[in-house]
Description:
heterodimer; A: alpha/beta; Rossmann fold; 2 domains; 8-stranded mixed β-sheet; 7-stranded parallel β-sheet; 14% strand; globular; B: alpha+beta; 4-stranded mixed β-sheet; 4 strands; 18% strand
Amino acid sequence: MVKLKFLDQPPRFLFFTGKGGVGKTSVACATAIQLADAGRRVLLVSTDPASNVGQVFGITIGNQITVIAAVPNLAALEIDPQAAAKAYRDRIVGPVRGVLPESVVKSIEEQLSGACTTEIAAFDEFTSLLIDSALTAGYEHIVFDTAPTGHTIRLLQLPGAWSGFLEEGKGDASCLGPLAGLEKQRSQYKAAVDALADPKRSRLILVARAQQATLREVARTHEELAAIGLSQQYLVINGILPQAEVAKDVLATAIFEREQNAMASLSALLKSLPLDCIELKPFNLVGLDALRKLFTPAVSINTDSDATSLAIEVPSLSKLVDSIAKDGHGLVMLMGKGGVGKTTLAAAVAVELALRGLPVHLTTSDPAAHLSETLNSALENLTVSRIDPHAETERYRASILASKGAQLDAQGRALLEEDLRSPCTEEIAVFQAFSRVIREAGKKFVVMDTAPTGHTLLLLDATGAYHREVSRQMVGSDVHFLTPMMQLQDPKQTKVLLVTLAETTPVLEAANLQADLRRAGIEPWAWVINNSVAAATVHSPLLRQRAANELHEIETVANRHAHHYAVVPLLKDEPVGMERLHEMATSNY
Amino acid sequence: MSRIQVFDPALCCSTGVCGVDVDQQLVGFSADVDWAKQNGANIERFNLAQQPMDFAENNLVKAFLERSGEEALPLILVDGEIALAGRYPSRVELSRWTGIALVEEKPKSGCCGGNSSCS
């Protein structure tokens, strides 16, 4: 067995963090099994919404510590952040349901439905595991498949966040809302944060894939958490294509080279961390046998050199665009978690529409800018603009701090600054910048590589509640009246395309985004599955196996989630420039 | 000293920055409340999103919500009676209710002190 650095003399608490789909739950499970196999008493804590820990061990776990009979020394616990947030909402809203007007109750519920609420509610569940207690006394290691974000930890560290809050019981700190009304004492949260920041007790393991975008994001997480004292960090790069596959396949060669390039250009910051690489496996990481093999090098599977393509018959992006084009104009928004390829797909949709002779404005938040540059002046009827999310967010923050924070004292100002670092702030700032362009959608196509979440839209709509009032009074009259929310809700005017990958967690995350949009009365029009190996032509046995594994996810999307869908194959080259984007949209059936 | 109760709409925080549009008045008012408290005022704020029971248990507030809806908030009670609704009080108004003297610089123009409630 390969000696892994992050498993060398592990402290009591191990946290795995990384974006959805990088495999942190699998790595956490495999870690817990390995430690338990070595005779340590281990508790595995999962917050993965896919909740595949139970599935992995073939038992139902749920929200209580459950002994895993198949692995001596191992117990597991699943925390469902959504359920924790819901329990919190029910505690607050339950007593006033039927007492206060229905519209008021709805508004309260919406305020408590944001990402912050979920995150803090989950952290609250963590707290009891991080402090000394009878509950966890028997475990030498507690392995978490997630870690709190910098935003959460910083809020908990701010004295200003507490002074007015838990002590007086009156809310000041926004995102700490869910902690009010809970019985836990400040000392407990402080103890939990202290444990997190103590290298003797805690180790943070950043999990990534060998992709530029993912590695950039991990570098940000690393810096953010290091800045608040989580100094002991390790990096695990998961799912690297083994060199042995290269000889068998052009696509495999291209992937291998791309990954090695990404590894070679690791930032100095990440290079300074202890690094472990885990090879891509041909099998799904379900079941004990599979997980025990995760940390071992791949055994070359049958050298079946069957050259026939596995490529399946799935609708291409171009087919979707045919339907979009029929409307002649409108807003097309691509939505999905980071790293699924929204910007590239937005560009492909824009190019396809433009090639059909339609007027198109593509607006992206592409940080690299090269995409917009290669497309500018490619076609007469295609204009490209770009906003910088970082700059927009900074401008928004600066303007608020200057105008609104001017009168605050140091503590109040620190708190306002932290509030402005909430995940909602960036979304709002970026969406405000984009909304200047949305108006054009009445005359031409506007394609955007982002969309606001349902939660943000509902808050937006609440602040513009008078719009609803006006539109109600106008029913029956023939005056044309339209609110931004109505524009987004009308499928004739706005089409939301959800972008995902053909893997369990990304599909589940996209389904959650869909549920969130539905809450706001917006029905995503289509799903796009990006980077599909199944839709590509592959010969490498490993990739062919991966392709076969994708079929189930594609079926789930097609049958259970999507009204319309398209599959975009994994490409040999990065789709830059008009020709390659067009190729990408039309390469399958 | 008079007891001032402020019933806020459902805010994710008292500064409202998590909301879609930061309300200048809200941030200013938060500062005014701090100022008044430091001068010994008895002011309590209730956030509809976090303390809805305080709204439900006060008949005056509950009736106000039923009649005018959440859009009509904030509602300010002084000694249990409605003193102001639909906007936040200025520092001048806080001063009148609490008897705390205004020693701040005079407003440049017009009707209200420090903050922008009448701008």
